[in-house]
Design a protein that fits this description.
One of its GO terms (cellular component) is cytoplasm. By secondary structure, this protein is an alpha+beta fold. Strands 6-7-8-9-10-5-11-12 form an eight-stranded mixed beta sheet, with helices on both faces. It has a seven-stranded mixed beta sheet with strand order 3-4-2-1-15-13-14, with helices on one face. It is globular and about 105 Å long.
């Protein structure tokens, strides 16, 4: 069940203008499947409410973003971030790669030596790597020429050369995210600890005031928000309250991921774990840690944890995506998200996901002067595509269930009726406005989510032309 409110202007959290245009709906016990459908249509959760911006009207375009957990690869910059945090929390040991035994090294060297001759390429090749291999082989042949068995000596020299390369490659090998996860796991829990706490847990209730203090410091120092509501009640409403229906048996639900250094709270990432993905709803941290790139570190920790989530909860499917909230082009605070490759953005028109590096980056630059960029290619038949989209939106609207108002205009009938079955004049003189709002909502959530929604409209706002 949701309470829907149409688009209205408010203060933008990115440029501080009063030109952010956003639609809201308040949710009540939203199942994980419906939540994931809403995420795939650009909705973001804050407390018990979901919001989506109007891209043609809002000041700062907010693109929904995500990364693929199963195909994520660390970059050199992210490894530096992990090393900085590891040093900061006292783990100077760092990750250690698994070493090959002497027998394994000899076997690998012999196998690579057999490939050395082929690596020289055809005799007429002028490629640089082929020329380097030929020069190397010529030097080894000269050294082997004086031996009793030149061919056997050449094979031995090739194996020695390959073994040296393997040792050097192993010594300089790039550590994986799992290597760093093991390094953090070796730390003393009394020194550094990551806690995943559900909203109803006693441990979270005991640490809420620590979270509140960290949250206030973050808002004042990082966002410099002078008009912010600083009350503890507001913090609980937007950060602690959740509308996601938990499924604890499969590990699905809302978690507060707390990062502790001794008895000092470093930061909190509020995460919603869904059917086969998770969403980082909001992250705040101690501003003194800004040099450690805390946003990147927390995202990397989530990726590491989600990659092994199915081992802890085998009842559910493996995690596929981590949703990263909105991405605003040109915003430096959100720039780290594009480095979590493969990074994807949601097309605001077709509601399809596109790769940032191969598709979105160039289109964002090309459309820098426009309100937003469309990532999907233009339809071959625009008229047919528009007709299909209109038909789909009408079907989605008819599938919505809406609560009927009472005779006096108040919501007194606890009955939800599909839009297709609404009686004529169900909302009195506001019926046309109600149908317009329901059509708008159906277009914003898509047909799959529309079939699961039961909508409450505020009649008093309908009379004013709102939602």
């Amino acid at each position: 069940r949701v309470l829907y409110q149409s688009f209205r202007s408010s203060r933008c959290g990115y440029c501080n203008d009063e030109t952010a245009v956003t639609a809201w709906m308040v949710g009540y016990s939203v199942p994980v499947g419906l939540y994931q459908e809403l995420m795939n249509h650009g909705w973001q959760r804050l407390g018990t409410a979901f919001s989506v911006c109007s891209m043609p009207a809002t000041c700062c375009p907010q693109y929904a973003s995500r990364t693929d957990v199963t195909r994520f690869q660390l970059t050199a910059s992210q490894r530096r971030t992990l090393r900085r945090v590891l040093r900061f929390v006292g783990g100077r040991c760092g990750p250690k790669p698994d070493k090959l035994s002497a027998a394994e090294l000899d076997a690998e060297a012999l196998a690579e030596a057999e490939l050395s001759l082929a690596a020289a390429g055809p005799p007429d090749s002028r490629k640089a790597r082929h020329l380097r291999w030929r020069r190397r082989l010529d030097r080894l042949r000269q050294r082997a020429a004086s031996a009793e068995s030149p061919d056997a000596e050449l094979s031995r020299l090739l194996a020695e050369s390959a073994a040296r390369r393997l040792r050097r490659r192993q010594r300089n090998s790039a550590h994986s995210l799992a290597d760093y996860a093991r390094a953090f796991a070796r730390l003393d829990p009394g020194r550094f600890q990551v806690r995943w706490l559900s909203p109803d847990s006693r441990e979270l209730q005991d640490s809420l005031h620590d979270e509140y203090a960290c949250y206030l410091t973050y808002q004042q120092s990082v966002h410099r928000d002078v008009d912010f509501d600083w009350s503890f009640r507001h913090f609980c409403d937007v950060m602690v309250s959740t509308c996601l229906a938990a499924e604890r048996a499969t590990g699905r639900g809302t978690y507060h991921v707390q990062y502790w250094l001794g008895d000092r709270l470093l930061g909190v990432d509020i995460v919603d774990v869904l059917a086969d993905s998770a969403s980082s709803m909001y992250f705040f941290y101690n501003p003194e840690l800004l040099r450690l790139s805390p946003g990147s570190f927390s995202a990397l920790h989530l990726l590491s944890r989600l990659s092994t989530w199915h081992l802890s909860f085998p009842q559910g499917p493996p995690m596929r995506y981590l949703y990263l909230g909105c991405y605003v082009p040109g915003n430096r605070k959100l720039a780290y998200k594009s480095g979590l490759r493969p990074f994807q953005l949601l097309c605001p028109e077709t509601r399809r996901w596109f790769d940032f590096d191969t598709v979105c980056r160039g289109l964002l630059l090309a459309n820098a002067g426009s309100k937003y960029a469309r990532f999907a290619p233009p339809a071959a038949d625009p008229a047919a595509a528009a007709a299909l989209e209109a038909s789909s939106a009408a079907a989605a609207r008819d599938a919505l269930k809406v609560r009927l108002p009472g005779p006096s205009g108040g919501l007194v009938q606890p009955k939800f009726v599909a839009v297709r079955d609404l009686p004529d004049g169900a909302f009195g003189r506001s019926t046309a406005a109600a149908l317009d709002l329901l059509g708008q909502l159906a277009e914003l959530v898509g047909p799959d989510a529309a079939r699961q929604l039961a909508v409450v409209l505020e009649v008093a706002l309908l009379l004013q032309g709102g939602g």
